[in-house]
Structures are given as structure tokens and as C-alpha cells.
Amino acid sequence: xxxxxxxxxxxxxxxxxxxxxxxxxxxxxxxxxxxxxxxxxxxxxxxxxxxxxxxxxxxxxxxxxxxxxxxxxxxxxxxxxxxxxxxxxxxxxxxxxxxxxxxxxxxxxxxxxxxxxxxxxxxxxxxxxxxxxxxxxxxxxxxxxxxxxxxxxxxxxxxxxxxxxxxxxxxxxxxxxxxxxxxxxxxxxxxxxxxxxxxxxxxxxxxxxxxxxxxxxxxxxxxxxxxxxxxxxxxxxxxxxxxxxxxxxxxxxxxxxxxxxxxxxxxxxxxxxxxxxxxxxxxxxxxxxxxxxxxxxxxxxxxxxxxxxxxxxxxxxxxxxxxxxxxx
Length: 328
Fold this sequence. Notes:
Layout: H1 3-28, H2 33-44, H3 57-86, H4 90-105, E1 110-113, H5 117-128, E2 133-137, H6 140-148, E3 153-155, H7 161-166, E4 174-177, H8 182-195, E5 200-204, H9 211-217, E6 221-223, H10 225-238, H11 240-251, E7 258-263, H12 275-278, H13 280-284, E8 287-293, E9 296-299, E10 312-317, H14 319-326
Parallel strand pairs: 1-2, 1-4, 2-3, 4-5, 5-6
Antiparallel strand pairs: 7-10, 8-9, 8-10
Helix pairs in contact: 1-2, 1-3, 10-11
């Protein structure tokens, strides 16, 4: 019997015994409801019962019955309730409906498929940036940990359409597939793209030969952890200062320096202006180091480059400079 059924059964049995006890004293001794409830509560609390001589013989036998059955059932029910509360299982037992309700309220969120160390790093980055997300996992240990940390999760297989739909994929703006094998990631990418063609999809690849297959399946970006790790280790040895700088602007949480990607909105004052005439550097202090026009990445753009709606500029600066730039 699972925790939920055990808890419901225990409480229901306790209520039945209480109702039987109250009804018995009202019928046998002619007591009022309040006096019957008081007598039953005294018996169940095992604090002792005074005035037993006022009961009839039938009433005394009924009391003996309650002592042996009621106290046993009550102790059993209370111990189960305590177990569920102490172990922090209430959300796990009854939380499915609560979590589903939370997911239904989400929009423009992210879906993370899979668990493990990479997923933990993704969670950390998302939480640091205040992003809302749902994790889909089949691992009981991981789910237990997510529940304790109040992370929104969904138990299930992410390759199934119904699980992705339950995660709100039609309202999501991005999905990360971090399954441990390329076959699973291909299925997730295919299903996700079919359910939401506008969804941005990032996936991992364990095999270099799978990179193109995952892109053809619909992934916007394919990350190969082994390849990146190898390049990063080599770069740390050959170009340590560059690696330190990138670590600072990408992951440094204690330094007021960050790299941001900002999309030019339709009401921005810089639309139609060149970089040099936009006032970005003069008004905000941030430095434009690259930009994307559509799918084309322009590194070190020329001062004469014209800014247009939906262009994405990659800038370097501190938090106050970023806020000034976002208001332009």
C-alpha cells in the first residue's frame, strides 16, 4: 500500500471508530453529543477515565471495546500521519494535483528533460537568473530531491507526447534535452518540435556522429559535453587569461561584470540608427561585442552597422549599465 492510500485508510478508520464511540455512548448511556465526544477523546488520549462507576454494565463493556480497538487504531493512524509529516512526504503524496496546477499557470517557461550533474548546473543558472522551469524525470531519487527543494517537476518519460503536453510545452519558450543517450534525445527533439514548432530546443550529444542528426531532428543547438570539456581543458592550459575572463563574465556571481544578450524591441529608440549613433556606449556605458541579425552572428560589428527590430546585441557591462540599456 502506497503512502497516500495508507494515510487515507488510517484517517478513515480512525474517524469510523470515533463515530462508533460517540454513537454508542449516545445510544447506550443516553449522553449528549458533547459528553460522548469528550468521553471518546479521553479514552483515545489514554489520559485515564474517571467516573467509570456511573456507566451501566453495557456501557463499561463498550468502553473496554473502545480501549482495545480505538486506542490501537488511533495510535496506528497518528503514527502514520506523523511519519508522512516528519519525512516531508505530504507534498509528494498529495502534490501531483498541486504541481499540475502550478504548471498550468506557467507560460514562457523552460522544460528540462533528464537529470544528473548537468541538469543541476542548468538549474543553478536558471535559478540565478530567475527563470521558471519544469523538470521531467523518471528517476525516483532525483524527484525526491526536487520535491525537498520545491523545484517544479513532472514524473514521466519525456519522449512521450502526453508528458511533454503536461509540462506545458505549447506555452513554453524553450526546452533542454539532457537524456544520457542520443536516441532518447532525438525522440524528445522530434516530439517537442512537432508539438511546438516555435520552441527553441537545446540538446546534448554523447557522440560526435549524432550532431547533424539532432540538428535535422529540429534542435536549434547541439552541445557535445565531451568535446567542450576537451577544448576547455586545452584552452585553460594554452590561454588561461581568456578562460578566466570568460568565466568571470559568464559565471562570476560576486563580480559586477556580466555578459547579456538583449533583443531590440519595436519601441526601442535605437531602431534605424547605426551603432555609433545609437548612444549605447555613451548613455549606458555597456560595450557591444557582437550581434545577431536573424541567424547570422556578427562579431565585433562595425560602428556603421544599423540596428533593426529583433536584432540581438551581445553586450558587456555591469548590472546598472544593463538596466540603462534595456530602457533604451
